[in-house]
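Quick one: structure for this chain?
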Amino acid sequence: VALFGAPGCFTWRGNVLSKNAGTTRAAETAIDDDDFVRFHKNGLMGVAVTSGKFFDDQVYYVSGAPHAGSDDSMASSYRTGRVFFFHKDTHTGHRFVPDKHKTLYGQEFGAGFGYSLAKVNANGDNHLDLLVGAPFYDGGRTGRGGAVYLYLSRDNLAKFHEVNSVIIIGRQLESQFGLSMTSLGDLNMDGYDDFAIGAPYEE
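Got it. Here's what it folds into:
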């Protein structure tokens, strides 16, 4: 299955599409004309996508929406970013059933939470963990630029929790640490996946 995003759809609400490799069938979409209003205008869903068995044997399709959030500029959730989870309906075969209870929420306006995503087995427990980039995080302009959130999975976990997360903060203000990242596998053979994080404006 090929998974890709289309963040400009539906007035930049965005979309996620999937297509079975080697077929001529049309791509399946996460949202359509009937339900796009449930998502935030200008939320940019689809800027980053990934998939994996994060919680059980079911595959989840994951998409970042770094500008999603409340439209009320006075609300604490104003444009803080979201990460959405979808799963396949075993009865209809539809690949994009939203699982609202698994949604991850950014904490800071304009941080770009969900701008990049990567899956890793960071703690060597054979459960996939999730990296979420927030390259415009500044921590109140404390001299730090960008952040990556590592959400750890474990046995019998139904969703990711902040209590099981680690935040990695960039060293230099406006370095955009977390703009891109990727899993590298277990490079040094210590049982833990390694990963690389880009910070394009760090000197």
